[in-house]
Design a protein that fits this description.
InterPro entries: Cro/C1-type_HTH (IPR001387), DUF3612 (IPR022055), Lambda_DNA-bd_dom_sf (IPR010982). This is DUF3612 domain-containing protein. There is one protein chain. This protein has 518 residues and is of the alpha+beta class. Helix content is 42%, strand content 16%. The chain contains 19 helices and 12 strands. A 7-stranded mixed beta sheet has the order 7-6-10-9-8-12-11. Strands 1, 2, 3, 4 and 5 form a 5-stranded mixed beta sheet that branches. The radius of gyration is 27 Å and the shape is globular. About 3% of the residues have low confidence.
């Protein structure tokens, strides 16, 4: 019995996966156990506790369950690694999920104790963690927030485009007063460095919006700030629990706060982060109502330059197009330098080249968002990229450009799509096209011009999706990119360090086994 209890850490998960694989409910499993042994058969609730890891079955109960599924008892025990649960697949975006097994180590109480320690050791604030949770929520839901969409459309009556004067009128109609102030950029802390930062605007309850006079010359940003503060009034009654709008270096409203690290995830941190997201989403939906903005994007073939016609910033254009497009497989990055992300959205599951909490030491230099940081201001480019994932190539296309925020800090903005699903839907050979481009790039030392047949298929997708920069990207070679340079599939790795000569413990262990076997 003791040996069974010490070797059953994955038993519950194995049983749950096996039961669901055979489409057997807990009630049905309990009934079938009763048919074999009415006296020792587990109840439905007891089977549920076994699956959750809160109860250990006796050898007799395990024997009954094993008999039903025609498995030896050892199949359920830890040493049977072939039956270990695999990591759950990513939903619609983000990294591969963690399998919360063994279940007894992933209880709510233990996670509540371990997460603050993890945040302390990694230098992550509770506010940053809250923003990470919200980003994961966005990615898995594909930015579907219909209640916020409906509220914004009700307030703006789907008027598009909205002018500054019209937004001022809407604010006045909802009891908001506008006051202007003058404040130049100041030096603020951004992790270990200091950069210029400027307060653009803030909300003061019960109904005053304070605006930096510099916004008078920047209608695109002025419109977004007005729309966001209006959203706070409409959604939250203007109670003032809303972050200051600032750009440049970090103030306390940002996920990359310069405040002392708070290892506690306060409910107020999560609430404030969620409210900021709601107000930002509302602003996008108000300025770019779904149907009119989608028609605009299709007419303009998703050109970012078209934002000037309707006084929208490139960032607002990129964020919103990932939502209003009928095609769901989008990503969006906002980086201030190589390795420093201000915003991330990965509805297509593209793996990150580096984290947004810490700066990676070996970023792949072939990502468009990385290369653009080295180029002059006011440049833009389109790029086809292939990534090797799970022994298959994935094909992405992105458009990347330089911009400056109100403090003068340079940003690199990048928006892109996963072309694979569209190619596979439109062409019987779609998957072969993607794999062929990846293999061609390997043969050509990491980058290669796309062949005529594959290019024609990609042009067809560009026309179907009405995205002009997909066709633009065909003028340049497709590039191999990777989440980390040390995992580069090129024959000669793209980072200057080359392949690491450091040995792991497993490498040394294998050498010892080979030597002692002789």
């Amino acid at each position: 019995m003791d040996q069974l209890n010490r070797n059953n850490h994955f038993l519950g998960t194995k049983l749950r996966n096996l039961r669901k694989e055979h489409r057997i409910t807990l009630e049905e499993l309990s009934s079938r156990c009763a048919e074999i042994d009415p006296q020792k058969a587990p109840s439905t609730s007891y089977l549920s506790m076994i699956e959750n890891g809160s109860r250990n079955p006796s050898p007799e109960i395990l024997s009954i369950i094993a008999d039903i599924f025609q498995r030896p008892i050892n199949w359920f025990l830890d040493h049977n690694t072939s039956a270990l649960p695999s990591a759950p697949k990513p939903a619609t975006g983000g990294m591969t999920r963690i399998p919360f097994d063994p279940a007894f180590l992933f209880t709510k109480d233990l996670l509540q104790a371990a997460i603050p320690e993890l945040l302390l050791q990694t230098g992550t604030t509770g506010r940053q963690f809250a923003h990470l949770l919200i980003r994961s929520h966005q990615e898995t839901s594909h930015n579907e927030y219909p209640d916020l969409e409906r509220m914004a459309e009700k307030i703006g009556n789907r008027e598009f485009p909205l002018s500054v004067d019209r937004l001022m009128t809407l604010c006045k109609q909802h009891g908001l007063e506008i006051r202007w102030f003058e404040r130049k950029p100041v030096m603020a802390r951004d992790k270990e460095r200091s950069v210029k930062s400027v307060i653009r605007s803030f909300y003061e309850p019960p109904g005053i919006i304070y605006l930096n006079k510099a916004l008078e010359k920047d209608p695109a940003r002025l419109k977004f700030d007005l729309a966001s503060h209006l959203g706070h009034k409409v959604l939250h009654g203007g109670d003032g629990l809303k972050s200051v709008h600032a750009t440049g270096g970090e103030f306390d409203e940002s996920p990359d706060s310069g405040l002392p690290i708070n290892t506690n995830i306060d409910a107020s941190d999560v609430l404030l982060a969620w409210r900021d997201f709601e107000c930002s989403f509302f602003a996008g939906a108000l300025l770019c109502p779904k149907i009119p903005f989608r028609r605009f994007l299709n007419r303009e073939r998703h050109r970012l330059e078209a934002g000037k016609k309707i006084e929208l910033t490139p960032a607002a254009m990129m964020r919103r197009m990932t939502k209003v497009s009928n095609y769901p497989h989008w990503h969006f990055f906002d980086a201030t330098s190589a390795g420093r992300f201000r915003a991330v959205y990965r509805g297509n599951g593209i793996p990150l080249p580096w984290g947004n909490m810490t700066e990676a030491k070996d970023p792949c230099p072939n990502w468009a968002v990385f290369r653009m940081t080295e180029k002059p201001l006011n440049t833009s480019s389109s790029q086809l990229s292939v990534i090797r994932e799970n022994d298959e190539w994935q094909l992405y296309c992105c458009h990347t450009l330089h911009t400056k925020d109100m403090s003068g800090l340079q940003h690199v903005l990048s928006v892109g799509v996963n072309l694979g699903p569209a190619l596979i839907s439109n062409d019987a050979n779609g998957n072969d096209i993607v794999q062929g481009i990846g293999e061609l790039c390997v043969k050509k030392s990491g980058e290669a011009k796309v062949g005529v047949a594959a290019a024609n298929s990609i042009r067809a997708i560009a026309n179907i999706l009405s995205i002009g920069w997909i066709e633009d990207a065909l003028a340049q070679p497709a590039r191999i990119i990777c989440p980390r340079s040390l995992n580069c599939p090129r024959d000669h790795q793209c980072n200057h360090h080359g392949k690491s000569s450091n040995k792991t413990v497993e490498d040394i262990k294998k050498e010892i086994l080979i030597q002692t076997a002789k």
